[in-house]
Fold these 2 entries.
Entry 1:
Amino acid sequence: MSFLTYQNAGGMNTDFTSVKSALKWDPIYYSRTANASYGIGLAAVILNDEAMGYNSKIIFITDSSVSVDSRFLKLAINNKIPIYFFCIGDFNTAALIGYAQLTGGKVYSAKTAAEINQSCNEIGPKTFVGETDTDGDGFTDIEEMSGLIVSSNCKIVNTDYMKADTDDDGLDDNEEVDVELTKVEVPGKQGNPSTFKYYHHMNSDPSKADTDGDGIDDNKDNSPLKKFNKNFQTIDNYNLDFANIYPTTYNEKFNEINSIYGTGVFENETERLKYETIKSKVLLMGLGGYTNFSSLLNGYRWGATPTAADLLLHYLNNNDEFYCIDNFSYAVALTTVQRNAYYNLLNDYMGLVEDTAIKGESYIFSTTPESKYTVSYYSRISTSIEADWYLSIGDAINGLISEVECYDKDGDTYYIAKIRFYLFDCYKWSNDSSEGDLYNLHYYGLAHSFKDYGCYETTVTWKQGSRYPNKLTENELMTTYFNGIVDSYLANAYIEGYNYYNKISAIM
């Protein structure tokens, strides 16, 4: 390739070269004396003298219609040198179309340099510099050196003509970008015929191993151009410590309440005895299995609340950062609030998996520390079981760690996931009229707030497209199997939890 400068005389700026950096383009200044016909004739003569053979082409860029001398057209025709016109702007191109058709070329309309480059893709780099494809990926070397146009707005991605898989993600460049061109018609203006844009459809970016930046390489990503739900992330280990996904907001709450622990100073002995007495009463409630402190102070209580009692006792006697609620699976099984929150998170997770997973691969996901899967036990309290969890938790955030695989069964796609479903909370009392005494126990160092969590571990198998119901009522809690979904432990958790609370109630 070479650039030609002309007005009424001229010549090549450089010798013919295939090295882009060696090309020289002298500034072109507006001149009414520029003779387009002379320029085309000069190009035809040079190409004929250079004996360039079947690869000879003239590319003529103009911002207005031009007239070409028939002698030069004949020279181009006889030497099989097609002329391609690139028209910048909107003007009548009828004459140029005639010249192009006579020589075997074509007319293109463009407004920007990028659109000119895109139009060159239709002419085909093979036309200009042959069909050399060093890496055998279907794209010629010059295409890859120039950059592949992968959208109608001229987006370009760069690939290595020496490597069939530029980004080493396990997918060859021709798997990430279609070799065949996509054609888009652009209607003409001012009576001009339509023009066309051509680009390669991109399935994923051949220059990036992970196109969407979601942590999954393109060769393992069913939707490599779609970054998944921001509440989730990929991780390396299913046995990741839960503390790594503990909510950022609750860490902040704990740090705030912990900063005032033991900073209170009793004004006198009477005040000290007052709070020592309150602590003793609360201790008796916990030991007795009742946790609503108004049951002693105001004479009102729910039935047995064993989970809340355990947490209250821990509040009075701990110096731990985390406390594990061992029977959290009962909350999932027996409270509509937590069951519906579980289903909500799992439904989002299933959608994420179906968008991402491909057969034969294993994936490990978790919620992020910033995820917003909140659950409020305040929203419904009609049984002693619900009261137990209301007094234990109040508001909390759910999280998840999971390992999942995709497989075929009877012609359908299924997924099987090991799941650790978490409840995350910060156990503290408010400094208000109803909870102020319990808050002050922490303030005076007679009790200690803490971070707590619970874990429901199960295996879920589901058929592609299956989802849990959006909202479950209390009467539907016994339903633990839904069409296309099997939760391996949910039915057992329901039975175990039901028997546990019945036994506690009988004792109390």
Note: Confidence is low (pLDDT under 50) at residues 295-300.
Entry 2:
Amino acid sequence: MLGDGFDAQVFRRQLEDMLRGAAAAADAGYPDNEGLVIDPETGIPSLKPHRPEGLTPSAKRLEQEIKARMPERTLIGILSRTAYWVQWWRRFGPASGNEPKLADPFGRYVLTTFVKGTNMGPYEAARHIPGVSGHELSYTANRHFSIVLLNEAIADLVNAHARLDISQAWGDGTAAAADGTHMDTYLDNLLAETSVRYGKPGGIAYHHISDTYIALFTHFIPCGVWEAVYIIEGLLKNTSEVQPTTVHADTQGQSQPVFALAHLLGFDLMPRIRNWKGMTFYRPSKQTEYVHIDALFGEPGKNTIDFDLIESQFRHLMRVAVSVREGAISSSTLLKRLRSGSKKNATYAAFREVGRVIRTVQLSVTWNLAVAEIISVRYDHGLRRCVGHGGAGGEVAGARQARASGRVVAGVDRPGAGAPDDRRLCPRIGRVPGDVRAGERRPADREPGPHRRLCTGVDLKAESSGCECGLNRLGLGPGQRHHPAAPGAGPAVLRLPHGRRTA
């Protein structure tokens, strides 16, 4: 919860100090800033483009070595192996929470996940997969799958991926990127609209991707909606152990109310901003002037922040932020209401003023950093799209804002929120392990009820022979290596959670 002594005056002082400090640092660092140039006559800023140096010889050798040691896998093979190792398939089942009345739930759930994930359709998939009918796949998808169970299975995969050594080579999980992808749909869909950009009907799959290169959460939203209203929703609904505090997006991932709400909830919103040269900077007071960057703030005495309004609306800002954090109101619903048409609404005006502060601070901090520092902090950290110097229209990306006390409601608890033989998929052959067949005892790591909590790791050496038979029915053996190791490579080692591994 909010700390003792935190009130409207403290919040106002935090914002004022943040804005004054960022603008003063940008003004003092401008003479030494080689990347930023402000036209003395027009006051229009411009950023010098960054030229990449290309791959080094050592990076090319590393890429060749990885390709030599890492065999290609088919999509069904990947699904089968992860289902066996992580046991995510046990999340699915009837809505009653009882054991599935299926002869082979492991194979049926893996096949259904493949069919739905590839958007192939059950009856089209049944034409190419022997031993299963379209009715069986459709029945399993409608009766044993749901959005809630699917998100639980995704969280299991994200948690298992976060414990792998290789995932730490990409990032530490504190940052994520959000962007949308057009998906074709039928016209008689409630979310289907004709996209002006793509010229065909469909919807937008809005993904949140972690800096460890794994998808955390996905929304399906209509075409034409401003994507920024959904950017915080995905962060709050992410129930995995990977909880990013920094989110990158494109121009549609930002607006003044979104900047404000992200700040109140403890997130650093750092989008690429198209046409940033026309962005207005805001002064902390009418008397504030700067030596080098004053042209960015417009005419002297104008474009100032109304801190009195922010202070007077403090209780409403906190009430809204806590309601969103606790799940009493959806952030997307709130942000749809906080739009430019609500100018007469005092709460919207307060959100707008806070957003102006945060956006001005972000741009000031970004420009005051050397290009090499931005690259080292963000580009090499795994999110390439965060740096957009130059390019058509010019885009500028955010850098981490140095604010120790800027997170207002961050303390509020978040609601619980291939190998050729991989293609041998014959559901008729073999069985799943005896301890997970329908009608027999539950595994020790599975609780009754629809919301099942799973053990985080599986020791492959300790598995029964029946489980090996169940995996072999997909043409895959546990720990099986289909390609010989590269010269000089040791035995294949599969790292599992809690330090377990199998060779």
Note: The CA atoms of residues 124 and 474 lie 20 Å apart.
